[in-house]
């Protein structure tokens, strides 16, 4: 099972890139963030894809997430919904049997840092509850937190920068530890200090690979022995984020 996440920074602007990527890579689960479009603004070629069950959750010109699940992947149709910690159309989830998959777009925190911390705390509670119910959980998306300094290029490291602050990092770590989740990208590539998913959109920062790792696929610890690969498609698309794709043996 191939699981992918991508902050597209505008689904209408990136429509053709998303379609070509899905057609080429054939991911089974696609999590998209920052749609910047209401449901009725999502291009028809995406919103009416016959081979996927789709959930589009967005607002005009702001935020928004998408969750696509390939038909036939599971025996039953997924049940889509939005956990209680969703606000500003930032979370879409699907439950299939004992598995919950979520597409998540954590607030940046630049305009309201308190709201970001509140969101992370609520996500921690949600993940912890899933763990207590023995529900397998996969959370994918733009988490807007670089876990450690290893996840930020040395030229971009700033202790007080939002996305690198100690309190948000500590809270994000609690999402993983108390929710029983593993950061798949780092687990499979623990020593790589140039593993980034977002680059400032100026001065050829992407070409120089001067970036941050903000996009993650988090999976319940019980699933980790089935993970064979997790990679960043750093060359794909014109969003300021790159897709992250993982392979899960079924």
Describe this structure in words.
This protein has helices at 15-25, 44-47, 113-132, 166-179, 184-188, and strands at residues 2-7, 29-33, 52-59, 62-70, 79-81, 91-96, 99-105, 136-142, 181-183, 215-220, 227-232, 244-248. The protein has one domain (2-248): Deoxyribonuclease I, Chain A (4-Layer Sandwich). The strands form 2 sheets. A 6-stranded mixed β-sheet has the order 3-4-2-1-12-11. The chain has a 6-stranded mixed β-sheet with strand order 5-6-7-8-10-9. It is built from 5 helices and 12 strands. The model has no long low-confidence stretch (mean pLDDT 96). With 250 residues, it is α+β, with helices and mostly antiparallel strands. The longest helix has 20 residues, at 113-132. Helix 3 runs parallel beside helix 4. A hairpin with a 2-residue loop joins strand 6 and strand 7 (99-105).
Q: Would you summarize the structure shown here?
A:
This protein is α+β, with helices and mostly antiparallel strands. It contains five helices and twelve strands. The chain has one domain: Deoxyribonuclease I, Chain A (4-Layer Sandwich), CATH 3.60.10.
Output the keywords.
single chain; 250 residues; alpha+beta; Deoxyribonuclease I, Chain A; six-stranded mixed β-sheet; 5 helices
């Amino acid at each position: 099972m191939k699981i992918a996440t991508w902050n597209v920074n505008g689904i209408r602007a990136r429509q053709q890139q998303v379609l070509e990527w899905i057609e080429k890579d054939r991911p089974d689960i696609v999590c998209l963030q920052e749609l910047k479009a209401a449901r009725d603004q999502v291009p028809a070629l995406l919103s009416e894809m016959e081979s996927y069950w789709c959930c589009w959750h967005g607002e005009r010109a702001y935020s928004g997430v998408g969750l696509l699940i390939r038909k036939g992947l599971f025996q039953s149709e997924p049940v889509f919904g939005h956990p209680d910690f969703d606000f500003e159309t930032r979370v879409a989830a699907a439950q299939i049997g004992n598995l919950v998959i979520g597409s998540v777009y954590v607030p940046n925190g630049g305009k309201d840092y308190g709201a970001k911390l509140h969101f992370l705390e609520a996500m921690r509670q949600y993940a912890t509850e899933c763990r207590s119910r023995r529900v397998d959980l996969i959370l994918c998306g733009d988490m807007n937190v670089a876990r450690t300094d290893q996840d930020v290029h040395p030229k971009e490291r700033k202790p007080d920068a939002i996305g690198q602050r100690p309190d948000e990092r500590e809270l994000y770590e609690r999402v993983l530890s108390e929710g029983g989740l593993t950061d798949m990208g780092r687990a499979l590539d623990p020593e790589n200090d140039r593993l980034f998913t977002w680059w400032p959109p100026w001065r050829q920062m992407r070409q120089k690979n001067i970036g941050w790792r903000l996009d993650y696929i988090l999976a319940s610890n019980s699933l980790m022995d089935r993970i064979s690969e997790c990679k960043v498609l750093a060359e794909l698309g014109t969003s300021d984020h790159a897709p992250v794709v993982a392979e899960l043996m079924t």
